[in-house]
Amino acid sequence: MSLHGRDVISIRDLSREEIESIVADARRMIPYAEGRKVMRSLEDKIVAMAFFEPSTRTRLSFESAVARLGGRSLTIADPGSTSLKKGESLNDTIRMLSAYADAIVLRHPNEGSARLAARASDKPVLNAGDGAGQHPTQTLLDLATMQEAFGTLSGLRVVLLGDLKYGRTVHSLAYALALFGAELVLSAPPTLRLPDEVRDQLEHMGAKLVEEDQLHRAIRDADILYVTRIQRERFPDEGEYQKVAGSYRIDNAVLAGAKPRLIVLHPLPRAGEIAPEVDATPHAAYFRQAFLAVPVRMALLNAILGPAKGKRGG
Question: Tens-digit pLDDT profile for the chain (314 aa)?
Fold first, then answer.
């Protein structure tokens, strides 16, 4: 089993065993991510960060991961400053980047763009979010947070709350959790339910799916509450967004009926769906989740670009 030189476009590109290996490696990467130890396994590597959509945590954690491994980044953070503004195709941009770097991390507003980029590039492509499609590296850090909290990824009861239609993090996470036998409780406004094609694929995988509109009932026996922001930028019509804006909010009153060990996760940024008062409770795990992005992405980049097993730098 080797990830060396491979693309990661969808979480479904990874087997359960590969996911477990990345999560385990990420745990070992924590002291390096914190700067307490030094690793130089990517000291001769350049990673292109091609971000054609706004990002804070994903881009900066990828850049931090590359730096912590001794590599260097080339970053596009403003698509308006690139030749795309002049009409250059994504295909040509990716071919150019693959000539300049050893791997490409791509975020793009169009679903399917990462798969297109992988076909255009002769270097590994990592999908950092493609429209409402997939966000596999976010899923890996979500799973690492769950593993850290519960010591296992098997048999968890996970509530997926919010924008299940446009939320790419939910789509990726649901596929991964199905591999580990999780029970998925789906709680969303009627117009933001999980797309039929995603549901059909999950059911084909044997996933346990439960619909629950009443939030207090959904979280009563849950281990994890995964909250998502309503993806305002994905709505084709502002009026449709306004109909569902503010339709759910997690606060201490909502969590009063939860199990003591329940953790609340959120891919961030939040936009009012989690009250600040939750930050001070033992349930809040979303800032730890954000930190774990660095060791998880370090583990993934090291597996794809680092030296062969047995020759790891350190």
Answer: 589 999 999 999 999 999 999 999 999 999 999 999 999 999 999 999 999 988 899 999 999 999 999 999 999 987 776 776 677 899 999 999 999 999 999 999 999 999 999 999 999 999 999 987 789 999 999 999 999 999 999 999 999 998 898 888 899 999 999 999 999 999 988 888 899 999 999 999 999 999 998 888 999 999 999 998 875 555 556 655 555 555 688 999 999 999 999 999 999 988 889 999 999 999 999 999 999 999 999 999 999 999 866 444 44
Q: Which CATH number fits domain 11-134+293-305: 3.40.50.300, 3.40.50.1370, 3.30.70.20, 1.10.3630.10?
A: 3.40.50.1370
Domains 11-134+293-305 and 136-290 share a fold: yes
By annotation, the residues acting in catalysis are 57-58, 86, 107, 135
CATH class (in words) of the domain with range 136-290? alpha beta
What is the C-alpha separation between 236 and 54, in angstroms, rounded? 18
Helix, strand, coil: what percent of the chain each, to 5? 45, 15, 40
Q: Return the domain boundaries, the chain.
A: 11-134+293-305, 136-290
Distance CA(231)–CA(12), nearest Å, equals 23
Query: In this structure, what token pair is assigned to residue 88?
Result: 């250059």
Task: Give the span between the Cα atoms of 214 and 229, in whole angstroms.
Answer: 18
